[in-house]
Amino acid sequence: MILLLPRLWKVKHLEKQGKLKEMQHLTHKTAKVWARRLIAITGTSVQVEGLEHVPPGPVVFVSNHQGNFDIPLFLGYVEKQKAFIAKIELLKMPLVSTWMKYIRCIFIDRNDARQSLRAINTGVDLLKDGHSLVIFPEGTRSRSTEIGEFKKGSLKLATKAGVPIVPVTINGTYRMMEANGGRMKPASVKMIISPPIDTTNLSKEEESQLTDRVFEIIKENLKSFL
């Protein structure tokens, strides 16, 4: 938090000057440094496999969701400017929610179907504008090595925007907090980035099977940790 406060003034100043590219660069750079420092404080070791699979241009990263540290893991260790599809409850967190807005995160109210649809359309526009997004289709943290069912329709962002889907498997983040009653502890964390899936020119059948296809890729990777 100490890092975020002084940089916030600089970000707002660049925004007022209309220097949006410089603002985005500073915002994402700050988020990366903050995320790495936060993970380092816990004493956690991080191993990332498959960074070479991340293609140029906008993508939708689709990941399992084990714990609160999944977001810092993405911010700190995946070298691409990205925003998150996040639950609207995170707006209640001062400062953190401000930074999430600046990196162009999209907040979804799962109890409001119309708002969720508007948010998805905003996400499609963001992807078409060249920004990448991260989604956790389980909708909530598993707090374990288990993986919950992916919500149907959660990958429409990618198919509507015509951008690649990059499956990501995370293991160990729940041991950093959720497994310890909310207390931070060191853990061994691994992230596996699988080859991208092209979403253009899919048949209706292929599109309908896309969620299951990504789920199985991540599920198989999780088995390698057991």
Structural class: alpha/beta
Gap between N and C termini, in Å?
A: 35 Å
Mean pLDDT: 92
Describe the sheet with the most strands: 7 strands, mixed
Number of strands: 7
Order of helices and strands: HHEEHEHEHEHEEHH
Helix content, binned percent: 40-55%
Outline the secondary-structure elements:
Elements: H1 4-16, H2 20-41, E1 45-49, E2 60-63, H3 70-77, E3 82-87, H4 96-102, E4 106-108, H5 113-128, E5 132-135, H6 156-161, E6 165-171, E7 188-193, H7 204-208, H8 210-223
Structure commentary:
- This protein has 226 residues and is of the alpha/beta class.
- The chain has helices at 4-16, 20-41, 70-77, 96-102, 113-128, 156-161, 204-208, 210-223, and strands at 45-49, 60-63, 82-87, 106-108, 132-135, 165-171, 188-193.
- Strands 1-7-6-2-5-3-4 form a seven-stranded mixed sheet, sandwiched between helices.
- β3, α4 (96-102) and β4 (106-108) form a beta-alpha-beta unit.
- α1 (4-16) packs antiparallel against α2 (20-41) and α2 (20-41) crosses α3 (70-77).
- It is globular and about 50 Å long.
